[in-house]
Amino acid sequence: MPFKKLSLAALMLLLQDHSHAELLANKSALQAAFTYNFASYTEWPSITGNRFNVCTWNAPLVAAALQELPPRRLKNLPVQYLAAQKIAELKSCQVVYVGEDAHGDLPAIHNALGEQAMLIVTDEESDELPPHASIILHEQNHRLAFSINRSAAQAAHLKISAELLSLAKKIY
Question: Which helix (H) or strand (E) holds 77?
Answer without folding.
Answer: strand 77-84
